[in-house]
Write the structure tokens for this entry.
Amino acid sequence: MMKAGEGATTKRRGCVLQILYFDFHRPAASTLANKAICMINLNELLQLNAPVVLASASPRRRQLLEQIRMRFSVCPADLDESEVSDSLPPERYVRTLATRKARQVAADSKSPAIVIGADTIVVLEQQILNKPRDAREARTMLRRLSACRHNVYTGIAIVDSRNLRHSVDVQRTQVEFRHLFDAEIEAYVATGAPLDKAGAYGIQDDFGAVFVREIRGCYYNVVGLPLELLYRRLQEFCTVVE
């Protein structure tokens, strides 16, 4: 058997061809070295002058921050979200909840921290769809979303625990579902996955991924944290001269 990088020669129509064999399952040493060199420390790149705290228990938001190699800790806010009326306009609703979450954790912090709060909702025909209360409500939501366009809003808030200085913004993404069959809805709800997600679906889920025909806007916003917007707001937040 040829070893990786070894070659053989063959003749074809008077030309000598060199054929190289590579072991694609074994990364070359140079590739591993390049990966080590290319590791980004986002906290240093943004020149953050305090540790980052995520005021959310969402595993999706945690995974997204890990994806962009941000160093952070998790301290979920203990907030009764029902205190904020869902009759508010969607942008104001998510701005309010994201800010309250971040401010609560920042105010309780015993050490300097830059706290990130977020809230995501699905809006269909001007109605806010939060997390379903049970499987029955999840089925109802998915049937309503079937073959329709809806909007996903995420509010993000950044709060400095030292002085409660804050920055808030909102991202909107339009999502279109294909027609969903009852059997698909039943199978998805049976997994339990829709029960902890606004609108009863996750675009990153096995089923959720094949329900979505088209999106217009930020994909990560639909998952629960608009990364590009968060990065820009952190840049601006950290360059403010106090």
